[in-house]
Every structure is written in C-alpha cells, then in structure tokens.
Specification:
Strand content: 15-25%
CATH topology of the largest domain: Translation Initiation Factor IF3
Number of strands: 9
Structural class: alpha+beta
Largest sheet: 5 strands, mixed
Number of helices: 5
Radius of gyration: 32 Å
Distance between the termini: 78 Å
CATH architecture of the largest domain: 2-Layer Sandwich
Helix content: 40-55%
Order of helices and strands: EEHEEHEHEHEEEH
CATH class of the largest domain: Alpha Beta
Number of domains: 2
Oligomer: single chain
CATH superfamily of the largest domain: Translation initiation factor 3 (IF-3), C-terminal domain
Shape: flat
C-alpha cells in the first residue's frame, strides 16, 4: 500500500469533503464517510490532505493505485532521457562527409539530445583554424531548423568545438508540418484509390451492358 496516501481508518481529520463515484460531493464526518464507503464495498482515500477540510474520494484503493502506477509507467516510457552526442570533423572535411555527419546531428537534436560538434586539427592543420570556424558556421546554418548554439565556438588546444541544443519550438512546428503533409498524402492516395475503383466499376458495368 502507498504510505503517502491515507486510506480508511488512517484518515485523521474529523471532517472531510467526499467525492462520490457518481460525481456528487459533500462535507461530512469522517466516520460517516467511512461507513458510506464500506456500504459500497469501496475505500475512503484522502487525496488532498492539505485542503480545508481534506478531500477524500470513495473508490477502489487497489484499482486507484494500479491506475496511478500505469500512468507513471506510461510517462516514463514516453520520456526521452537527453544525452550528449558528438560529431567530429576535420578542417578539410569533404562535402559528402559533412552532409552525412550534419544529418546525424539533425537526427540527434530531433530526438532531444544535445550535440557537441568538434573540429579536430591534426599535426600542423591548426594553421587552418579559419577553415574550422567556417565549417562551424556552415554547420550552424544547416542545423538552424532544429537546434541552436548553446554558446560561441571555443578553441582548446587542437580542438575547436561548439554545443548545440534542440530548439523545441522549431522541432514541434516541423513535426506538425510533417504530420499535416502525411495526412494530405494519405488523403490524396485514398481519393486516387477511390477514383480508380469507380472507373473500374464503370468499365465492368459497361462490359456487362455490352454483353446484354
């Protein structure tokens, strides 16, 4: 039993506001409320102990706890634990490799993850740090539809890095647009299918008339 919820004789207040299964509610002595619950084969649960008087509900305690547990499980299932993902580049990364890694960065941000983009300068490649900053600018522009820089790019030793965080407003808008586009495509496909079925019926009807 959930120790955070007082039930039946554990309820200490002399009076409570009772919510009945049929939606009725009224203030009554706790003992009378308890008797009413017992007569219905149910329990008296204190759901708002800090109210004046405390609010109680007549319900099945086991079912109540089961429903709460079910909701908590669903919420945890739908929660995405944000993680830090990294994509690594070199100052002379070619277009194909850049596009491939930028696509992965977009996917990470769409899922709600934070992304660290790192430009690695190997050997004497540090002399090309301007190319690294230019690559960061290209990446920032590419990711603008789903994310935004958490701060400016920083150069530490032979690594240039920047963090991106998801832009929830833009991501939600993008997902909404995608759903609308999908709905339109499905509607168009259904209409096309119906039109083809109609034409097929007309042909079959015409063939039947010609045979007659």
């Amino acid at each position: 039993m959930d120790k955070n919820i007082r039930v039946n004789r554990d309820i200490r207040a002399p009076q409570v506001r009772v919510l009945f299964p049929d939606g009725e509610q009224k203030v009554m002595d706790t003992q009378d409320a308890l008797r009413s619950a017992q007569q219905q084969g149910l329990d008296l649960l204190e759901i708002q102990p800090n109210a004046n008087p405390p609010v109680c509900k007549i319900t099945d305690y086991g079912k109540y706890i089961y429903e709460i547990g079910k909701k908590d499980k669903e919420q945890k299932k739908n929660q995405h634990v944000s993680a830090l993902k990294e994509v690594r580049f070199h100052p002379n990364t070619d277009k194909h490799d850049f596009d491939f890694k930028a696509m992965h960065a977009q996917e990470f941000l769409m899922k709600g993850d934070k992304v660290r983009a790192t430009i690695v300068f190997l050997g004497r490649a540090i002399v090309y740090k301007d190319q690294g900053f230019a690559l960061i600018e290209r990446l920032t522009e590419r990711l603008t539809s789903v994310g935004k820089p958490e701060g400016p790019a920083k150069l530490e030793g032979k690594n240039l890095y920047i963090y991106y965080v998801p832009d929830r407003v833009k991501i939600d808008a993008m997902k909404k647009t995608e759903l609308q586009d999908k709905a339109r495509e499905e509607a168009a496909a259904a209409a096309d299918k119906a039109e083809r079925a109609r034409k097929m019926q007309e042909k079959e009807k015409q063939k039947a008339e010609e045979k007659e």
